[in-house]
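Reopening: DMT family transporter still failing for me.
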Amino acid sequence: MPSSATAAPPAPPLSLRLSDAALLLVALLWGTSYGVAKGALVYYPVLGFLAVRFGLTFALLLPALLRASAPQRRAALRSGLPLGLLLASIFACETFGLAHTQASNAALLISLCVVFTPPAEWVLLARRPSAAVWACTGVSLLGAALLSGGVPGAWSVGDALILAAAMLRAVQVCCTSRLAQRTPAPALALTAVQAGVIAVAAAALAWALPGTLPPLPGHSAFWWATLYLVLGCTVFAFVVQNWALRHSPPTRVGLLMGSEPAWGAMFAVLWLGESLSVQGWMGAGLIVAAAFWTLRQRPAG
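Support: Ran it again with your exact input. Result attached.
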C-alpha cells in the first residue's frame, strides 16, 4: 500500500462530541416546545405563563445556587442578571409571537438565529464571518419572507416578534459565551439566576398591566405542558447551553441547533394539526438548508 495516503483528520475531543450530542437533543426539545407552549397559552396569558414557567424553574434550581460558594454566587449574579434580562426580552418576544402565529412558523423563523449569530459574533466578539455566511443570511431571509407570506411588510405581528427574538438570541449566544468563559459560576447556579430574573420581570410587568394575571388555571393540560417546558426545555436546555458554550464557539453552538426548525414544524403538524402552504414549505427548506450550509462553511472552532 502506498504510504502517501491522506491521513484521517484527528477526532474531535470527547468534550466537543458530548457538547454536540447534548445540543442536538436540546434542538429536538426546543423544536417541540413551540407546539407545547402554544397549547399552554390556551389556558393562561403570556406574561403569567412566563412567570409560572420560570418561577418553577428558579425554585427547582435554588438549592444549586445556595450550595455554591460565595464567590461563585457573586459570579452567577454578575453574569446572570444581565443575561436574564436579555433572556426575558427573548422569551417575551417568542411567546407573544407564538400567540399570534403558527407554532410551525415560530419554530422555523426562530432558526434564523443560526445565521444571525455569525454577524453578531463579528460585532460583539470581533470574529468576522465569511462571504459564504453572508450569502446564507440572505437566503435565510428570503426563506423567512416566503414562509411568512411574501414581503416583510405583509408579515403578521407574531412573525415579526419571532424574528426579533431570533436576532436577540444571536446576541444572547455571544454574550453568554463571553460571560460564561470568564465566570467561575456553575452552570446550574447561573441558570437559576437567569430563571429568577425572567420570572420577576414577567410577574412585575403582568402586575403593572391590569387584567394580565388572572388566577392560576386548574386544567391539567396546562400544568403538564408547563412541567415539560420547565424540566426539558428550560432546566436541561439552559444548563446544557451554558455548559456547551465553555467548550464550543458561539457559532458552532448556534449551527448545531439548526435542526430545531425541522423538529418544530414536524411536531406542530403532527401535534397541533397545522399546515404550511407550498410557498411556506419552500421558505422552510431555504431556512434549514442555509443553516446547514452555514455549518459546513464555518470552521469548527
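The CA atoms of residues 105 and 147 lie 7 Å apart. If you still see a failure, please send the error message rather than a screenshot.
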